[in-house]
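The instructor's notes for this session suggest beginning with a concrete chain rather than abstract definitions. Hand out the sequence below and ask the class to guess, before any prediction is shown, which regions might be ordered.
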Amino acid sequence: LPVINHGGSQPPSHTAVMPSAMVGANGQPISARSAARAAEEEKRKKRNRLIIIGIVATVAALAIIIAILFAVLNGGGEKVEVPNVVGMTQAEAQADLESRGFKLGTITMEVSTTVAQGQVISSDPSYKAKVSPGTTVNLVVSSGPEPPKKVKVPDLRGRTLSQARQDLEALKLVPQLGEERFDADIPVGSVCAQDVAAGTELEEGQKVTYHPSKGKETVGIPNVIGQTEAAAKEALEAAGFKCVVGGSEYSDDTAGTVINQRPLGGNTAAKGTEVTITVSKGPEPPAKVTVPNVIGMTEAAAKKAIEDAGLVCVVGQSEHNSRPSGEVINQSPSGGTSVDKGSTVTIGTSSGPASTSTNPPATNQGTSNP
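After discussion, reveal the predicted structure:
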């Protein structure tokens, strides 16, 4: 123990106190170094306990704060479930939500191929979510499927069948092969017609029917010989042919009637083929010829000249004339006259000069000369 000096003014002297020797559990003394280590280990354990206590206290405090915040944000009190409005119309969903005390929030339109246009696809908060009364519920409503794209129908006339199909499929249109049709201009096997006109706007996926050509239509040619020109033309055009008047000719048939046609009736030809008809001008009128002048010719020479001209020679009565016997002294019609071919020309010939004797020949009175 330290010694305390109660007298004098001199400062007290300190006497070092030596630590007493520590005794272990077995009663044996413990060295100073071992004691120091033990003390340090005790301090470390205290520190760890304090750290653990601090962590636990912090977590507990955070849990309390979170619980308080949750209660504040959610208004506390009783919770309600969000009703199922999926599949309802927007108006029905709004009425249902408001009848339960909810507020209708934003409406978002969304394309859908499975939910009909105008019906609710989803809600936020979703069905059965527990929320405070008066919570705002947002809806996603279907705007229906995305409208199909429109394209213009191509002109398929003259295209082969495979080309037409490819043209339509490239535009996402559905090709449909129709029945064959006659066409005078489009080759057999190519497209001659389409049910939807080129340039028409259609939605993708719509059908376009096209028709292959089977060439020119062949039909029977009507026989129009003997018909009037007007009736023949009407009959040919009604059958699908073009009537062409190729000219007219003289014939024994009535003027204005058809006397010939090419091609002949009874044959077949493509519609639109030209049929040429020939029309009668009636009987041919006689040709005009000039009567030859045969005055002064012998009868034989005159007759030949008249017949060579296409006329008929008739010899009339002979007359006495100063001209030699047998010479033509008159004709009718006269030479130079224009007459129909085959007309008659009458000629008169001389029978020579008349006799000049005035004494009659002596006659026998029945008496005999002596």
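Then share the key points. The helical segments are 32-73, 90-99, 161-170, 229-238, 299-308. DSSP finds five helices and 22 strands in the chain.
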